[in-house]
Amino acid sequence: MDVQDLGSAFVAAMALVRHGDPDMLAILGLSLRVSLAALGIAALVGLPLGALLAVARFPGRRAVVVALNALMGLPPVVAGLMIYLLLSRSGPLGAWGLLFTPQAMVIAQAVLITPILAALSRQVLEALWEEYAETLRSFGAGPWRAVPTLLWDGRFALLTVLLAGFGRASAEVGAVILVGGNIEGATRTMTTAIALETSKGDLPLALALGLVLMVIVLGVNALAQLLRDAALRRAG
Amino acid sequence: MLPIEAEALSYAAGGVAILQDVSLRIEAGPPLLILGPNGAGKSVLLRLLHGLLRPGRGRITPEAPTRGAMVFQRPVLLRRSVGANIRYPLALAGLPWAERRRRAAAALEEVGLAALADRPARRLSGGEQQRLALARAAALAPPVLFLDEPCASLDPAATRAVEEIIAGIAARGTKIVMTTHDLGQARRLAGEVVFLHRGRVVEAGPARPFFNGPASAEAAAFLQGDLLW
Amino acid sequence: MVTRRWLPALLLCGIALPAWAQDRSITLASTTSTEQSGLFGHVLPIFARDTGITVRVVALGTGQALDVGRRGDADALLVHDQAAEERFVAEGHGGPRRQVMYNDFVLVGPGTDPAHIAETHDVAAALLRIAAARAPFISRGDRSGTHAAELRLWQQAGADPVTGRGQWYREVGQGMGPALNTAAAQNAYALTDRGTWLAFRNRQDLRILVAGDTRLLNQYGVLAVSPQRHPHVKAAEAQAFIGWITGPAGQAAIAGYRIHGEQLFFPNAGSPG
After folding, report:
1. CA gap B149, C20 in Å, rounded
2. Which side of chain C, N or C, has fewer Cβ within a 10 Å radius?
């Protein structure tokens, strides 16, 4: 890999985009669908969990928080291996027949980013709860009722949390290649395609795909930021 | 809800006694002002009466999770529109949608914020924020409204506006229980006075005799503007 | 039982994912060499056109591919380690084994050739020279078919590279491509199948130094996973694939795959295994 390769990677990336290479578009589409689906599932679980941990005081809460923070660093390959063993035909959930499907990749990414969403949203919402607690209690809202309020009033901060989760999900390769199998036309995502092209020694193409992925993730972030700013102007 | 009866309240935080053996009775009538130097325990007393804090000793009747409504020195407005801020506690109170709308509109009209109903609440000026907080509490139509130094960080014009709103709420039959360190404001608003010093009730009674001739040396010194501790 | 049906359905509904499972498709666990050389990209579309069956390839090392078969996670296997394949059949996981095609392994290394192996056509002699020179050698180290072949060649040469482990003998534990990337970066020798080598783009100073020794034959076999062990496998489709790839149409398709005019795989289903 040298400067020349970087240059040819850039040229290759431009060509991929300009010609709208259909294979790449399909892979890109699958990557986005899988990561967004994983984000949706992880958000349904992780954000309320984070909000609950922000407001609830119960014995063992600290242990849960520490465990969540530790799970944020769960190596993707370990998560992938556990899900592989669960979903394998010889595993407990083998009857579902989900191994080597996009659904398996959604599950793997959701498992990976749920702790991230929960831990980060807890941090964000704990600060908000500190500010809101007395006022909400004055209105007669206990911790349970505070959860939806915090999730709504913290929505702009939580958008950043969601983007962090999306970034991690879409950048992930170790788990999805294990449970998805990197099957062409079925479970090949941008990251597993990059891994494959790297294996084949086609480093410029691998880098070109990487550039495209980065631009897409950048675009998603920019779009989210725009939406946030627009909403912020209206709602404060 | 009224009368609220506090009997022999004591409250300590971190081993420091903040209130000792405080008894008082809140009855329907003109505003009750809780006066006293800084650190006398005024804010803690309000929180005990409202229900945000539990007394270490003593009891308050009627027993309830919270009594009445409260407005804080620095109001916490939700990250929502002005109108939504008023509707939120109404929804918690279980009022139907149409009634929430009606009350929110009326409350905003009363505090002069009707034109700003769709604005983000946290973009309002300090005075507007305090008026919104008052409207939000008043919309609940509470029998008693606790106000903790509501004008402490406001300029004179905003203070005047807030005082007018408070007088209006009191005139509609809501009992006002309020702390202030501003003696002029106390004179303008008070019907009754409780004077706290070092966590104890030193004097309690109608406002006029208190301001004209306080019974205790502490209150006399306080009214003259001496530093008390 | 309810949740077992309900949960995957939920996953499906919430997520607009494409119909990945065509009515007729099989999962084939195979090797990185067949996938990365581009053979499947050439052959499988022809099979799909002939039979309407889509083949979904999971490319792994041979050892891993056999494990996937043992767990019932694939319908058929196309791999290249005869001894391991026969063990798989003997253990009742599937079979019978049919031979499909062969190509050959080659020893690649830097143009400077510090162990002077280019002078010999004897792979055993070449390996002994590498060991004697303690010249860097990249091993797959991943239980793949190529790894098994490499260990067999060392044994036949009467050398034990494990003594050089961590020094000149370096096990990367990865696929053929990453192993070649490593060899290129470290100016090291490596054993590779010819198909992956021909498709490999990041050669830098690497070139073929030893080839053509009969001991470098790389034989591929195909097996169906046992439907007795794993009732869910698509036995009929798997048999259709095995019949096709070992039949005239499949064999012709394999022979027809070329890179730069060079044939990568040589069909030999007809000859005795």
Report:
1. 65
2. N
Closest CB from A88, A99, A199 relative to C32: A199
- State whether residue C270 is helix, strand or coil: coil
Q: To probe the interface with A, which of C3, C4, C5, C15 has the most A CB atoms within 10 Å?
A: C15
**Neighbour-count burial for C131-143, b at 16+ CB within 10 Å, e otherwise:** bebebbbbbbbbb
Q: Using CA atoms, how far apart are residues B136 and B108, in angstroms rounded to an integer?
A: 9
- Sketch out chain B's domains with CATH numbers: 1-68+142-229 (3.40.50.300), 77-141 (no CATH)
CB–CB contact A138 B69 (8 Å): yes
Q: By C-alpha distance, which of A162, A159, A161, A165 is closest to A231?
A: A159
Beta carbons of A175 and B102 less than 8 angstroms apart: no
Cα C58 to Cα C79: distance, rounded to the nearest angstrom: 12
Q: Which domain holds residue A74?
A: 3-235
Phi, psi of C58 (to 5 degrees): -105, 115
- Is residue A120 a contact partner of residue A161, using CB atoms and an 8 Å limit? yes
Question: φ, ψ for residue A207 (rounded to 5)?
Answer: -70, -35
**Residues with Cβ within 8 Å of residue A114, at least 6 apart in sequence:** A41, A42, A45, A46, A49
Which residue out of A125, A129, A130, A135 would a mutagenesis test of the B interface target, given it has the greatest number of B Cβ atoms within 10 Å?
A: A135
Token pair, residue C40, equals 């499947």
Residue C24 burial (10 A CB sphere; 0-12, 13-18, 19+): middle
Rounded Cα distance, A149 and A69, in Å: 24
Touching status, chains B and A (3+ beta-carbon pairs under 8 Å): yes
CATH number at A67 reads 1.10.3720.10
Structure tokens at C76: 């058929």
Residues forming a β-bridge with B200: B197
Digits of tens for pLDDT over chain B (229 positions)? 789 999 999 999 988 999 999 999 999 999 999 999 888 899 999 999 999 999 999 999 898 889 999 999 999 999 999 999 999 999 999 999 999 999 999 999 999 999 999 999 999 999 999 999 999 999 999 999 999 999 988 999 999 999 999 999 999 999 999 999 889 999 999 999 999 999 999 999 999 999 998 999 999 999 988 776 5
Task: Write down the residue that tokens 């967004």 correspond to.
Answer: A36
Tokens 């969540």 — which residue?
A68
C73 and chain A: CB distance < 8 Å anywhere? yes
Number of domains in chain A: 1
**Which residues 107-166 on chain C approach chain A with CB closer than 8 angstroms?**
none
Query: What distance in Å separates the CA atoms of residue B138 and residue A5, rounded to the nearest whole number?
Result: 70
Which two structure tokens, joined as six digits, stand for B6? 């506090």
C abuts A (3+ Cβ pairs < 8 Å):
yes
**Which ipTM did the prediction report?**
0.91
Pick among C58, C140, C197 to test the A interface (most A CBs inside 10 A): C58
Enter the tokens of residue B97. Answer: 């949608």
Span B198-226, pLDDT tens digits: 999 999 999 999 999 899 999 999 998 87
Residue C33 near residue C193 (C-beta atoms within 8 A)? yes
Taken in order of first residue, the domains within chain C and their CATH numbers are 25-102+219-267 (3.40.190.10), 104-216 (3.40.190.10)
Here the tokens at position B125 are 């000026």
